[in-house]
From TrEMBL:
Species name: Betta splendens (Siamese fighting fish)
Family that this chain belongs to: Belongs to the SRP14 family.
This protein's name: Signal recognition particle 14 kDa protein
Oligomer and partners: Heterodimer with SRP9; binds RNA as heterodimer. Component of a signal recognition particle (SRP) complex that consists of a 7SL RNA molecule of 300 nucleotides and six protein subunits: SRP72, SRP68, SRP54, SRP19, SRP14 and SRP9.
Source superkingdom: Eukaryota
Cited PANTHER family: SIGNAL RECOGNITION PARTICLE 14 KD PROTEIN
Coiled-coil regions, chain positions: none
GO CC terms: cytosol; signal recognition particle, endoplasmic reticulum targeting
């Protein structure tokens, strides 16, 4: 997994979307990131760790290539605006639901 800067993450994410436009999918995950690189031990020595500020970890993968970035609280607004514009631009290849299958299910249950 490659940890990128925010701007380079968005450009690589654009490339992932373009590569998977005809077939395939892109999986994006978002979670709170406290800066730890090692897992917390289950028993025994537990040290209190207080992060300086809240951060978000974003990961994207197409099954072959994985990219990630860490967004700090100072950069959230700028990153969120660029990220939402990118998602809007590449969400045109979604499949529509079958309305026929929904009506068949309701008739079968009645």
């Amino acid at each position: 997994m490659v940890l990128l800067e925010n701007d380079s993450f968005l450009t690589e994410l654009t490339r992932l979307f373009q590569r998977c436009r005809t077939s395939g999918s892109v999986v994006i995950t978002l979670k709170k990131y406290d800066g730890r690189t090692k897992p917390v031990p289950k028993k025994g020595h537990t040290e209190s760790f207080e992060p300086a500020d809240n951060k978000c970890l974003l990961r994207a993968s197409d099954g072959k290539k994985k990219i990630s970035t860490v967004v700090s609280t100072k950069e959230v607004i700028k990153f969120q605006m660029a990220y939402s514009n990118l998602l809007r631009a590449h969400m045109d290849g979604l499949k529509k639901k079958d309305k026929k299958s929904k009506s068949k299910k309701t008739k079968a249950t009645q």
